[in-house]
Amino acid sequence: MSNTKPSLPKGTRDFGPVEMARRNYILETIKDTFRLFGFEQLETPAMENLSTLTGKYGDEGDQLLFKILNSGDYLKGVTIEEVAQGSSAILPKIAEKGLRYDLTVPFARFVVMNRNELVFPFKRFQIQPVWRADRPQRGRYREFYQCDADVVGTDSLVCEAEILLMIKRVFGAFGLTDYTIKINNRKILTGLAEFIGAPGKEQELCVSIDKLDKIGWEKVKGELLDRGFVADAIDKLAPIVRREEGLNADTLGFFREILGSSIVGSMGVDELSQVLDLLEAMGGDQSHVSFDPMLARGLSYYTGAIFEVKINNVSIGSVSGGGRYDNLTGVFGLPDVSGVGFSFGVDRIYDVLLELGLFGDVAAAPVDVLITHFGQQEMNYGLGILSELRALGISAEIYPDTSKIKKQFAYADKKNIPYVIVIGSEEMNSAKVTLKNLRSGEQHTDNLNKVCEVLVQKKRSPND
Amino acid sequence: MSNTKPSLPKGTRDFGPVEMARRNYILETIKDTFRLFGFEQLETPAMENLSTLTGKYGDEGDQLLFKILNSGDYLKGVTIEEVAQGSSAILPKIAEKGLRYDLTVPFARFVVMNRNELVFPFKRFQIQPVWRADRPQRGRYREFYQCDADVVGTDSLVCEAEILLMIKRVFGAFGLTDYTIKINNRKILTGLAEFIGAPGKEQELCVSIDKLDKIGWEKVKGELLDRGFVADAIDKLAPIVRREEGLNADTLGFFREILGSSIVGSMGVDELSQVLDLLEAMGGDQSHVSFDPMLARGLSYYTGAIFEVKINNVSIGSVSGGGRYDNLTGVFGLPDVSGVGFSFGVDRIYDVLLELGLFGDVAAAPVDVLITHFGQQEMNYGLGILSELRALGISAEIYPDTSKIKKQFAYADKKNIPYVIVIGSEEMNSAKVTLKNLRSGEQHTDNLNKVCEVLVQKKRSPND
């Protein structure tokens, strides 16, 4: 047995009680909304066959997959000659499984494997960790949670509008006010490529435009030239890219006009316009929602709507995103499954809420009250009180050892427990207890019933 | 890209909406109790350094660890000569991390790494999957959840009594009535070894006695002989082993007498007796709690109380277990941390509740109501209704496409949605909606306000 100081694998984290309370608050808020909108939960295994994962995330993604060594004598059947060819050559022989890289591919696999039992449209949400062998850095971990909702089996734009409603509901519940949901449509980008005389090149256009925020228009221009866009195309693009942000209706009008000769482009404008109409028909308004015709998210599989959420008063990049895809399951032999999905970036939302001080009392009181005592007899007396408190739903602890009262109070203090009940011989003899509010310092001695009333009341309205 | 039929790695499972609803019910019930008793949540990463995991679970456990191949060119620095020595020889060079095998070792690592920040006694619960490269079979998976609660940093027997209370509270909440919490104390087994004249051999005694339920006394006798227990020792053991189960007080009295000359044994009897007294002082009674002096759980690290829960009317083995240990963190260089822990067997509890029909309506209604419609106009009209329902906290969906009403009803039916709202031209013209209860077939047409009242009422008291 080793006796060295233990450590964590790099890029991974423990989540202690305070972090867990905050994370649970975020996840429960999101889950509540998912459920209200009719999404059902799915969980898939951490391990997938490498045949399921490989080739789905590009070459770079394949490199970032964590591979699991086959059990037992994994080198059996591998010859020395094969080993001599290197790591990649023997990989398929010694590792058949890998860790989940995202929640989309496992979801697609699930849909294909269960296509005959599932009811379509299928609305699922999934909240689980994923793993990537990325170089760890601030805000980038090798294990992190994803939090996805997708509807598959319908191309109804109601789904897009519901995504906007869900985002607004969740971010509103968090108390966030200064955020923007950027929305675009892949077809608008396709139309744009046609408009500037570079039809079919929207992929390259997207990749470059996606960097607009980071590197600015001049550098994007250079990149476009490198990618073979001619000067005339870039000239046509320039006024569009540099057009000032306006009302969604104005921007839509502008694009309806310039993309009038593009069938696909017009379709994109129509879809986006309908999504905004549906949003209003469903009782939402367009506050926080901004049509950004340059939004591309650099992802090749979106075919319709594209979403991205930014927090305007925190510098952290996008905190959520998603879009519509038309071929989620084609790679597993089931073509033409259209769907639209969205992912909340839990880690970044955590950082935002922390920075803006929006967690409030979320992690403040894991336990409502601690029973402290001056000796063995008092402790025994406290045991009965403990069960009465818990029967009322009051989360309660008794200090389990006969220690100095100061140590017991320090325990309550460090655990952020707001109240202590003190039991001394006086309390025992008078069949009363002393309740002390550790935050205000106030204390009073009363019958247990009265004290319970105070605690129940506090639990119901913690801010009174 | 592969285009073959996807599959799951053997021994792993997807959890669809119905399973997830049931699992969440189990886990939320347990979490509620943990929190009421002052336990706080911890989560640790799926991956641990192999130096943390190896050597903690015996040779067999080391074999069952899933190892993660190092990223990049994992064979770099490995010579052909080393490869020729086989799988085990190069393992430390090509894999530095493994998947969590249980929650206890990561917890011990966490305690050691955070010993200066933690407040002791530290009460943590942890609910996460673990992975074992075991041969899959019915009820045994390669990925499964563990659900642990531990208190470390105190040897107070209040903790043992609280474990009994928590088990009773959780199993009671599940509606289980015919279950037994077996309790024993490792010191009683030590005393027993002394009593039969085989001091220090309680480990071997435990391993054999542990099989009593499975193979019977005659075969256990044979095994004891093989393990070097003399006939005289076995003769002394026989009447104890075959003693009929009685009241806890009687069994305690019997053991207090026969172990009177063993200091450790007497201590064990005292501890157990105190735990039962504390249980009663805390408002619990001894129903479901049975002192089983033969309970050993075959685990070498228990030093005090040992717990195990069996469901008497379902043949499934133990569904939960735990005990006190005195050296959780010694292996990581932090000696003398005493703790007591308990683990709920979530997968088996799931099977038990399913077999006994105790899930009730848990997974019955993911969504309260589906809005169906006879055409595009009716659907648009329904969108406004949708948002009013959700604003009242009613989980609601609208069928997102203009399909035949029959198809929309089939969707509600397959998703187990109890109510549909039907919108036709008549409803639109009279500003009313039709609500149909899909279970009873009843339907009536009314103002939206009235219909909302019905749905809110049903949500509050689903069985009315």
TrEMBL record, chains A, B:
What's an example GO BP annotation here? histidyl-tRNA aminoacylation
Q: What is its main location?
A: cytoplasm
Major enzyme class: ligase
Q: Which GO terms describe its molecular function?
A: ATP binding; histidine-tRNA ligase activity
Cellular compartments annotated: Cytoplasm
Which residue windows are transmembrane per the record?
none
- For whether the record's keyword set contains Ligase, the answer is yes
Q: Which residues bind L-histidine?
A: 102-104, 132, 146, 150, 297, 301-302
Q: Which key words tag this protein in UniProt? A: Aminoacyl-tRNA synthetase, ATP-binding, Cytoplasm, Ligase, Nucleotide-binding, Protein biosynthesis
Domain Aminoacyl-transfer RNA synthetases class-II family profile: where?
Answer: 1-366
Q: How does it assemble?
A: Homodimer.
Give the protein's recorded name. Answer: Histidine--tRNA ligase
